[in-house]
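We modelled the chain as a single entity of 354 amino acids. Its sequence is:
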Amino acid sequence: MTDLLDFVSLSLLPPWCWRVAAEWLRRGDCPGAVFRRLEACCPSTESEPGVGVRSRAADAIRRAATASMAAIPWSDAAYPAALTTIADPPPVLWTRGGAAALSAPSVAIVGSRAASPYGLAVAEQLAADLAARGLIIVSGLARGVDSAAHRGALSAGGLTVAVLGSGADVIYPAEHRALATAIDACGAVVSELVPGTRPQPWFFPLRNRIISGLSRAVVVIEASEKSGSLITARCALDQGRDVLAVPGNVLTGRSRGAHALLKDGAKIVECADDILEELGMPPVANVAEGAVPPRGGDPILDCLAPGEASDLDEICEKSGLQTPRLLPRLFELELQGLVRRIGGGRFMRVDRTC
């Protein structure tokens, strides 16, 4: 409980602290010490005195328990390993629904809030096809492309994750409350903001790094030149994720941002198979025919030892695999019971000889 209180207290400090906090936590500093050092650096206009922050943190934990929300601190084995690799991971994720959806291979689908019927149809179809393949669909519960992507995943009986720019118990926009409830049952609604936090404009660009950070790839649909979806795409590039875009109507201007991504080298998406190909997965048609993806040797298990935890940087160095390719294989090995994930984004091989 003390560690959780420390991590929630860290999350209540200004966002510029989170990158520093991640650096210190990765080197093994305890969260309480990190909080005390950072709190001392915060001007009084940016943060309450330490006792006030910890009191707010305790209130947030109590409120989450009352609302049946889970608080997943950075040190928890349930914290998504993919998110630990970004420069400024949130100290705590507040979740409604199933936290397991946060650690499965995911694709983000984002785009215009004022999407055309074409953009909505494409988002829903891509999400449904990818969800049918077993991928989690991540988006932001916004109007337009985001909500179409969530609905597409649900229509295929798949899982989807909504990342909010408000507390996980404060649904915005309000007309998506029913959709959020459906996502609770088939995925997760998550936020880095403590329960009860109302949406603010500057929260949404911050949450975009979580949408991309949870995902192996980001697909952009109908993004204008000033679309917030381009922030998500930039975050994805900074995090080493794949960026893909759907071409749109050149006459309307709705897709100028997406077309700029394509000109800069983003892969063009016309169907779900284009995304699966980029991820190194077999196409939807092959899966429907019962094909099994080919597997070669396994350099990951060779560099992990039973009883000895390794973080992602160590595994990358020893296996020769980069993070975007490493994480999906680690998740697969975890599902097979060959690898166990522990706190702080570290992994350990499971000794099955006894």
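As a brief sanity check on the tokenised model: DSSP finds 16 helices and twelve strands in the chain. The two ends are 33 Å apart (CA to CA).
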